[in-house]
Amino acid sequence: MTRYVLLLALLLIAFAPQAYAETYQSAFGFTFDVPSHWVAVTKQEIQDNAAGIDTASKSAAFRLVDPRLMEKIADEVTSGSAEIYLNQATASSAFVDNMDIVQRTNRIADDPRYFNAFCPALAEELTKAFGRSIQVHRCEASYWDKHFALYTEFDGAVQGTRSLQYQIQKAPGKTIVITATAKNHTLGQTRADFERMMRSVRF
Fold this sequence. Notes:
Layout: H1 2-14, E1 23-25, E2 31-33, E3 38-41, H2 43-48, H3 50-56, H4 67-78, E4 83-87, E5 98-104, H5 112-130, E6 136-144, E7 147-155, E8 161-171, E9 174-183, H6 187-199
Antiparallel strand pairs: 1-2, 3-4, 4-5, 5-9, 6-7, 7-8, 8-9
Helix pairs in contact: 1-3, 1-4
């Protein structure tokens, strides 16, 4: 889980692309609406900027993160196995609010016992991965377009940010993970955009 949380912050330090789409057909099997002030990063752009991403992975922003985890994240980014979206409206030289989409092979159990075990352990897992104390603000079951989902909200990998994440069980052994990360002072605006995008998701 934690490798995907870091994915966006790593990419955003590296470069800022110029293209966007209004209604997007995800390679992971669903459509959703993207606000005009968000830009979509293609796989080709990610691959073309591999050198910049590698440099970003060694930046001061990630000095506390396990280097082995950062290497795995860099591999994910440069392989083009994630879809990336950047919020131009809240962009700054230090950080760009963002969203990423990846697919995992795990299964989310529609069982209260699963959440009773998972949610209390999440803060410890993230604290270990990020190298500082991380607070989990929300951890709960949900449904998205008739698919079972896990929603979590927690301090971001980069200090001064927060991540909002849906893990949606699309099919057995196929989970779509959609994560938005925003600066704390722009969280309200990015959260509104993220929730609007999520409401438009159709599998």
